[in-house]
Amino acid sequence: MPRALQYEQQEEAGIMPLYRVVFEEQGGSRVVCRIRAALDANHMTLAVQKIWGAACYWSWVPGSDTEGRVYERLGDPDAPEDRARTGPTTVEIAPAQRRPRVPYSVIRET
């Protein structure tokens, strides 16, 4: 069964699909997170806020669909200041498989 169809069926059943989001800063760190989100959700916003906090957002490099930067909104809401939290960063979003659960008794016996 194609993954897109599988995720649509999961969403219809009330199960949100799992995604793996990888941020890799050029010449710097690599951060990976997993998020559960509806197919029509803004996955970038969810992942950025999960890692860097609610005041942060993603800004795409013009003309790119894989590169951008994370910024943090600071100061007065009427005149906010934005501070870069990352340098140029590449992002990858892909459906993820849930890790199989291993019963505790199996872990203890080995």
Descriptive report:
The chain has helices spanning 3-12, 43-52, 104-109, and strands at residues 18-25, 30-36, 56-60, 67-74, 81-84, 89-95. The two termini are 35 Å apart. It has one domain. 24% of the residues lie in helices and 35% in strands. Strands 1, 2, 3, 4, 5 and 6 form a 6-stranded antiparallel beta sheet that branches. It is globular. With 110 residues, it is an alpha+beta fold.
Structural class: alpha+beta
Binned, the helix content reads 10-25%
- Main sheet makeup: 6 strands, antiparallel
**Can you write the helix and strand succession as a string?**
HEEHEEEEH
Cα shape: globular
Number of helices: 3
Q: What is the tally of beta strands?
A: 6
Spell out the key features of this protein.
110 residues; alpha+beta; six-stranded antiparallel β-sheet; 35% strand; globular
Please summarize what this structure is.
24% of the residues lie in helices and 35% in strands. The protein is of the alpha+beta class and 110 residues long.
Secondary structure layout:
Elements: H1 3-12, E1 18-25, E2 30-36, H2 43-52, E3 56-60, E4 67-74, E5 81-84, E6 89-95, H3 104-109
Antiparallel strand pairs: 1-2, 1-6, 3-4, 4-5, 4-6
